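Sequence only, no structure available. Ideas?
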Amino acid sequence: MNQEIKLQQEQRGSVWEVLKTATRLGLTSFGGPIAHLGYFREEYVNRRKWLDEKTYADLVALCQFLPGPASSQVGIGIGFMRAGFWGAIAAWFGFTLPSVIALVLFAYFLKGTSFSDAGWLHGLLVVAVAVVAQAVWGMAKNFASDRPRATIAIAAAILTLIIPSVFSQVGIIIGAGILGWFLFRSTPDSKPVPISISIHKKTASILLILFFVLLGVLPIIRQFTDSNLIALFDSFYRSGALVFGGGHVVLPLLQTEVVPTGWLTAEQFLAGYGAAQAVPGPLFTFASYLGMASFGWEGAVVATLAIFLPSFLLILGALPFWNWLRHHPRFQAALYGINAAVVGILLAALYHPVWTKAIKSPLDFCLALAAFGLLTVWKFPPWIVVVFSAVAGVFLSFISS
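Reply:
I predicted one. Tokens follow.
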């Protein structure tokens, strides 16, 4: 018991350190949600050791189950485990604010600007290949190192690629959990590192109930008011609550909410989407651009809070139950299979969309290989590799033009 208390105390940190770390990640984490998980793993697990590899993998698996932006939910969960409720706020705020500011300013000053041919942006897409490859390699060594789990990982990657359904990843993880439940029942495993979850299960249950209440009540309130901001809050809350599969999947939902209503034109929507690809941090901050372009500063604030609120309610509501379940032997066996499947899903994402969007020529592959070497062999900080890749992308664009 004393050892468990000691471990829990060591995991506590200050809100300020969470905010500083998350803000640095928010300024340098390019490449989309899968790349973000790679940046998080390097910073929170390898560099700062705020949580161990297994806890991180378990948390990623949990967030794959939940609707909403998985990388943001992982960040919120880590912030909460590190510094409580305000730590969760700080982790989200730091990771999200840089891209919110960039997209709001774009909506205000730079309408119509295109980033599609920017060499530095292509360099950032290429570095995402190296970041994701590093994450897949590191997690595979821990969670798919034997024949049964490697087989699960490979099968998960194949199924993810040939069945690109919104719900396929959830089904694959459930299937892997069932396999793990039966295959790894007798596998000896060390107990998970104790995590201090400073929220009662009753409070967590209230948060989960609130998630569903808002989902049902907001459309009704919208019908009885002429407030554009309430309508905006309803539209973006629903989009954040009902999307599985990450930031790109939310785009059709958002387009349906803002273009047919006349809040934005299709051209404005696509221009903002192009800008969202060029900034670090979560793609869900595209909502900040849409809110700003539709209803000004108030719209930006309302849209941003609304689209991320479901993530807070779900992750804080689920964490206590997840922490309880992961200590049960049968559930640990299921996690053996689930974590192997997560490796496979990341491997599939390394190919599509990360590789297919970034690697267009042998020079692109050379840059990705160089970035991978800087990260894994030379142990350069990720932000330095990001800057190097952006500059190299500009250079390569001049060579190929």
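Residues 112 and 196 are 48 Å apart (CA to CA).
Hope that gets you unstuck.
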